[in-house]
Write a structure and sequence with these properties.
seven-stranded mixed β-sheet, elongated
Length: about 120
């Protein structure tokens, strides 16, 4: 069993910051790419940022320069630092983890989501 738990969401005003965390636990051989996705009401889920084991990062255009994804492999945790938040960043943020449960078996796991609300 593998568990993915996000934390750090909340309600902030425009221009403020939040840091989300995504912790993987359970029967893990290794952690591969980690990514953050978000889904606003009425919208499809979209990729926000991803980070590979080598530290290569990808960001959706709307968050470039404001968000930063990072990882701590020792803690099996990914982070999303969100600065200069805007009302349009309001969404449920989900972590997706590509987990090797054995040396030859990789599965995708999603967290339960954490709500970020940006409003004045």
């Amino acid at each position: 069993q593998v568990h993915i738990v996000e934390s750090g969401g909340g309600s902030v005003q425009p221009g403020e910051s939040l840091r989300l965390s995504c912790a993987a636990s359970g029967s893990i051989f290794d952690v591969d790419t980690l990514s953050w996705h978000r889904q606003a009401p009425g919208n499809q889920r979209e990729l926000v940022a991803s980070i590979t084991t080598g530290g290569y990062t990808v960001y959706t255009d709307s968050v470039k320069g404001r968000f930063a994804i990072s990882r701590d492999d020792g803690k099996k945790t990914a982070y999303l630092q969100m600065n200069s938040l805007k009302p349009e960043d309001t969404a449920v943020y989900y972590c997706k983890a590509e987990i090797w449960t054995t040396p030859s078996r990789k599965n995708l796991y999603w967290g339960q989501g954490t709500l970020v609300t940006v409003s004045s």
